[in-house]
Amino acid sequence: MAEGRIHVYVGPTCPADEILQRFPEVVVHPPASHGDFFSSEIGSGDVAVVVDGFYHHRLGLRHKEYLYALDRGVTVIGAASIGALRALELSAFGMQGFGSVYELYRAGVFDGDDAVAVAHEDGAPYSSLSVPLVNLHAAAQAASSAGVLRRSDVDNVISALRSEYYPSRTQARVLHILRRAGWPELAEWYERQVADDPHVFDRKRRDCLSAVDAAHHLVAAGAVGRVTGAEGADWKTVFLRTWGNYFVGMNGDPPLGQRVAYQQIFNPRYAQVWERYLEETYRRQGLTGELAHGLEDSFSRRIGVTGFPPSAVREKKDWLFDFVCPMPDLSDPFEVELLLSAEEPSDVEAVARHLRHMQEFSSRNTGPRCQEISSVLSDDASKILLCNIWKIPSEELSREYRSRGIPNIKTAIGILQPFIVGAIKEQKYLRAESA
Predict the structure, then answer these.
(1) Residue of 17, 208, 324, 409 with fewest CB within 10 Å of its CB?
(2) C-alpha angle 224/230/232, rounded to 5°?
(3) How many CB atoms lie within 10 A of CB 337?
(4) Omega of the bond leading into 198 within 30 degrees of 0 (cis)
(5) Contact partners, residue 120, CB within 8 Å, separation at least 6
(6) Are the beta carbons of 6 and 215 closer than 8 angstroms?
(7) Rounded to whole angstroms, what are the CA distances from 129 to 122, 170, 409?
(8) Interatomic CA distance for residues 338 and 254, integer angstroms
(9) Contact residues for 341 (Cβ-Cβ < 8 A; gap 6+)
(10) Cβ 294 vs Cβ 310: under 8 Å
(11) 79-105 pLDDT, tens per residue?
């Protein structure tokens, strides 16, 4: 079995160059953000060390994404910064915390992300522009041990510094706050200490390097892989599946998600593909007997309602297509193979061509003219175009899109959007009423 890789998500806490100098075999990523754990680069047996994470100007990594990684057999470690806080919050599910910052959270000294948050540069190396409160706490404790600050004043110093919004908590601002609050000797001592060694109170940096070292020991000891705690389906919501499909669907050229969407819209036999997909996926879940029983169980899990009457399905098999369209999992090769079972090489070429048409159209049409384009591509026009593509009267539209695994007209129109320009340009699906 191949040894697992170590992925480190870090930004302002510790320069990537310093980590790679000490641990040249690790994979260093920018601060963790929404979608990172859906990447095919990370898998069972790997270790993810989460140190820093984006938040204000980019969506952060959701809690359920941590659970998703744990459930896949990824060992997830949190340390030093937002990773330490997430490790405490998700310790019951198998996430591991390391370092002094994690222990401060566990002891209740700090309980919010403002204690580790810093303002930083937008791009690599993401240098810090402010000072984190946990490092200032280390400085206050050291000052107390050195006799510069009374031990009873440590909490007062931290309270005064905490009142400053974290992006404004620069080194100069820290010194100003200390002097203004009546601790000029502390300010002078702190300034001298940091001038002699910029990392003297840097708990976050030390914790980061210690956590990567701990990850190496875990891999060497074989103590990685799936853990208990993240099992169960309660957290596996439709939102998680939507996020996963979005990020996984962007893979490939053309993107996997667009290849599936093209089949849903343009394959005239996709209703049969979808029916086989349902049968095979329910069978794979161990739902034997009539499809209605599997449907009841799946539907109940998805919306949290039990006691769904399967008799309604037995009396009318078409009910399946009229009401339930379970969301596929594009990270599952088995499901993807079913969804693309009728795809031809020419279809892949057509997807790329349609996306190119849309890109060219978008690059040419900006500014006020977009208002005219929006009216042409209205929902009503999109419905007419769908009817033309599927060669059906408008009253059969809802049945047709559900038979293709599309739950509602809004989703159907959204799936169609990237292909509208190509469909109109090629003029295969136009009738008089949509021209």
Answers:
(1) 17
(2) 135
(3) 12
(4) no
(5) 11, 12, 126, 127, 128, 129
(6) yes
(7) 11, 7, 48
(8) 18
(9) 273, 276
(10) no
(11) 999 999 999 999 999 999 999 999 999
- Which bin fits 147, alpha (ψ -120 to 50), beta or left (φ > 0)? left
Express each pLDDT in 176-219 by its tens digit.
999 999 999 999 999 999 999 999 999 999 999 999 999 999 99
Provide CB contacts within 8 A for 212, sequence distance 6+: 6, 8, 19, 22, 23, 26, 49
CA dist 337 and 71 (Å) reads: 23
Query: Rounded distance, CA 212 to CA 215, Å?
Result: 5
Token digits of residue 314: 């037995």
Distances from the Cα of 355 to the Cαs of 164, 358, 421, 422, in angstroms? 49, 5, 9, 8
* Cβ 63 vs Cβ 92: under 8 Å: no
- For the entire predicted model, the pTM comes to 0.82
Closest by CA position to 9, among listed 31, 27, 40, 39:
31
Tell how far CA 46 is from the center of its chain. Answer: 18
What does the alpha-carbon distance between residue 30 and residue 16 come to, in Å, rounded to a whole number?
9
> Which residue do the tokens 């739950």 mark?
407
